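Objective 1b. Sequence-to-structure analysis of Ubiquinol oxidase.
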Amino acid sequence: MAVASASPLPAALSAKPGPARSPPRPAPGFLPLRARRAGAAPRLGPVATWRRFRVEVIKTQREKQQTEAPVEESFPAREAAPLDGADDPMVPSDESWVVKLEQSINIFLTESVIMVLDGVYRDRNYARFFVLETIARVPYFAFISVLHMYETFGWWRRADYIKVHFAESWNEFHHLLIMEELGGNALWIDRFLARFMAFFYYFMTVGMYMLSPRMAYHFSECVERHAYSTYDKFLKLHEEELKRLPAPEAALNYYLNEDLYLFDEFQTARVPCSRRPKIDNLYDVFVNIRDDEAEHCKTMKACQTHGNLRSPHSTQNCLEADTECVIPGNDCEGIVDCVKKSLTK
């Protein structure tokens, strides 16, 4: 996949000193330190500077979304019941300016990492995917670590969050196994870079999650959205080549396993058993990985609304909503019908 990267900056032009040479003009948007000329634009204050930064960030994000493939919704997320307990560290503030600030920081960090990856890997697709998957599973470890700490101190307890985040890390772990089988970790420099970034990313996510879970979930949404776009572009550029290659054994073991409970668990916007992957070749493998990233993105978006996350296998609510809904054993059709009834009520 030919990944677009930022063009290198032109080298500074060297000029010989001369008596008639005029002093260089300041760069556009910046004022000289000396007194301004009459009629010059006033210097921007901190509020105006922040507004300009917000406008530039929003403009960049809109231009990027126009070139990326959209992550479409596949199934409406179920409504969540209110949580018990007044002391809840997961409850974020509702101030809009805080949300905008958090998202602006996340977008800046994501774009910076993407620019580094574009410059380092360019056409080395499998090595890039290895680094992406090593990084992508880190936030879920961080979320579970913080949630375990909250449970230990008795501050907050909700099993659905831990269960879903573990299923997400399990899914990303198998993505990583697939990339290793394809040779993405062949060079030591790639392994070092991936693990070096993952180490600091873990502690950054832990701190971010403790300060603002909403911000941490939004940052993970940005990362997953970029992963979806990267795999989608790769599929469009190499479709015919990938269809001629066999599927890795790690992909067959994960996607065609008889026990797909954890596979259904991380897809919180879908009912269980509503998606069953097909693996005939390497192209199908990357299609499923791309679709997995879309499901991660939707789950991370749902998590930004407090209490909105529910395990797809939590059928107690639908049983209470409809007494006629009976699930015999592990019948997938019964689960699908039950959840559909609960969502339409």
